[in-house]
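Re-run requested by the PI after the first attempt was lost when the workstation crashed. Everything re-entered from the original request form. Ligand of interest: 2'-deoxycytidine-5'-monophosphate.
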Amino acid sequence: MAAAPIIVAIDGPAAAGKGTIARRLAAHFNLAYLDTGSLYRQVGFLVLEAGGDPSEGEDAVAAARAIFGRSFEDQRLRTQAVADAAARVAAIPEVRAALIEAQRRFGTTPPLLPDGKPPKGVVVDGRDIGTVIFPEAGIKLFITASPEERARRRHQELMDRGISANFGEVLEEVRARDELDATRPVSPLKQASDAHLLDTTDLSIEAAFEAARDIVAATV
Ligand code: DC
């Protein structure tokens, strides 16, 4: 019998570095990568595009059923307005339920790698991956950093993209999204009891990646 695919489940708050680390782990270990935040962003984007209300169940559930087949690389998913809409649709239980199956299917039957080879497993990042989507994952990481450091990184990223932003406002946005993600009743952001904690506050991205790589290498 073929070995079960390796599942690396990564959770953590916004702007903690998990997306960058997850992509690099996937490339390093030949695993397929799924950014589940982009699913919720796509739902939020579709609701806004249709002129709907992201906190309203019917608008959001209809959008959640319409996201598949769309591009998740679309840069329009990366705006602050869409991030805010994503956090709102993500609090609706029916929206989360509509996205569970596709996430689990990615774990059991991952797509081929860009070079056409079958992956040995997957890296999936989000907020509830180790707690709800793949509670049985072989490797779980909870990647975090202080709100100030996450706001500093987000602010720098905006400036690098030529977007002027006020640090205090970015920090407020980080705190507001933490509050929405961690206090919603359904699948809140939470460290799984068997997850490795990786605090990247004082780590460069390189050092953070190496720490994550060493944790994964000890298991695969
Ligand atoms: O990781 P991100 O910033 O792209 O996520 C956008 C929003 O989607 C985030 O505020 C919370 C939500 N989300 C979620 O509830 N569960 C996930 N597994 C991934 C994201």
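Saved to the shared folder this time. The chain has one domain: 6-217.
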